[in-house]
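Subject: Sanity check before I submit

Could someone independently write out the structure tokens for this chain? I want to compare against mine line by line before I put it in a report. The sequence has 150 residues.
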Amino acid sequence: MEGYAREGLSDVQIAEKMRISLTTYYDWQNKYPELSEAIKKGKAPVDDMVENALFKRAVGYSYVETTTDFELIDTGRVDEDGKPVMEKKIKSVRSVKKEMAPDVGAAAFWLKNRRPDRWKEKREEQIKVTSADYSLLDEVAEAVKNDAKQ
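---
Independent answer below. Compare away.
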């Protein structure tokens, strides 16, 4: 199970591989803490890889792209079907440094999860209302009612 987790399989997929129900999978984890720890241990490196990839995507990065061009050369031989046997020969190798621009969506996701106090989409503010505020609200409501009657 640890190996399946390390491969990036979800809990559902691990249960399927083990040919057990998801309920049994969770029951086993509750019953055998060492199994639960093994699965967590397997998931940790994969989760770290995804976290690192998300971070790189959020801030942007550079990479080298290498392209190899080949040409086919006739060997002068033929195969059992009488077709010429060709060999690949490297014609050229090019390496180009490329830039991956930062991704706004990845950055927003990162910040909302790592700094929710500053980046959460919905902020909850508490407003303290006193009895004087209720009196004022009653006056405003009464004034609106009177205006509506006129």
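---
OP: Matches mine. For the report I'm noting this point. The first strand starts at residue 61 and ends at 78.
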